[in-house]
Every structure is written in structure tokens, then in C-alpha cells.
Amino acid sequence: MKWMISFLMSLLMIPVAQADPLAALKSLPVQDGGRVKPLDTFAREHLELVYGKYDYEGRPAVEIVMTWILQPQAWVEKEIVQVKNAQVKQGLRLEAGRKLFTLNEITNNDRLGLLMQELQAKRETKEKLDPYYQALQRIENQVLTFREIAAGRMLKLVPPKDVTQDSAWLDLTRM
Description:
Elements: H1 2-13, H2 23-26, E1 29-32, E2 35-38, H3 39-51, E3 55-56, E4 59-60, H4 61-70, E5 79-82, H5 86-91, E6 100-102, H6 103-107, H7 112-124, H8 131-150, E7 156-158, E8 170-171
Antiparallel strand pairs: 1-2, 3-4, 5-6, 7-8
Helix pairs in contact: 3-4, 3-8, 7-8
């Protein structure tokens, strides 16, 4: 995994005649959900899922997602998890006037386990989820997405040697 990160970072060092120094990295193909897309698209989609926007403080999504992988601990105290639902905020005892919370505020919340149990029970009934449960599910997806990207399991960069139409690419942990 370290060699792959070194390789990716070396792409940033390549002199590029373009105005965007991240251009080479942005166009790197990755597999996501069974389809191949540029790393830039992957990064924007997943940053938007977690944070609610396609950039973070004016920094491009590719840069942010790469720092999730390279320095995940730097992100656990940054307000990147978007929570809009008032009932969920109340259930987690989060400040009502805020929309963004840190990963630690969410994952270390003593009420999160209880609310996730409620969500699982609701899923088992196979009923349509109301906005409250949809918001809980979104938090679950936000945290899981960050963790999987930070661990290198979600970023699939290398096609397998024996390629078939259904072949899963290799993530950073299997290289």
C-alpha cells in the first residue's frame, strides 16, 4: 500500500503544463460500484456524500479524499459529517443549530448504537423508511464511506490480471 501511495503522490510532482496540478491524479481510472470512472468523479461523489459539497474549503475533492487515505486522523476532528434532520440531532443530543459535526462527535456518541439498533429493527420490518430513519441511514453511510476510503478498501485502482466483465479491481489493501 505504501508504494501505491508513493506512486499517487509522485503523480502530483509531475510537471504539468496545465493550470491544474492535480490533473494527472484526477483522470486516474478507478472502479466504483462496478463501473470505471475518473478518480475525480469518485472523489466528488464521496465527498458530497459525507460532507454535502463537492469541495472542502475551496480545496478539490481529489485532494481531500487523498488526505483521508494519507492522514485519516487529521480528519476525525474536522466538521465533515453533515446532519440536517432535527430529530436525529435531538436523538444524538447534538447541537440543533449546527449542520456539520466531527466524526468523533458522531462515532463516540453514546446514543449512536441505540439509534442504529432502531434503524436495523426498522429495516427488518421491510417498511419504507421515513425521513428520520433515512437520515440515520445517511449517517451510517457517511461514517462507513469515510472509514472505508481512509482504510484504502474503497479506492479500487488496479484491474486484476484475469479480467472479465465482472472482475473486481484491487483496492489499496490488496496490492
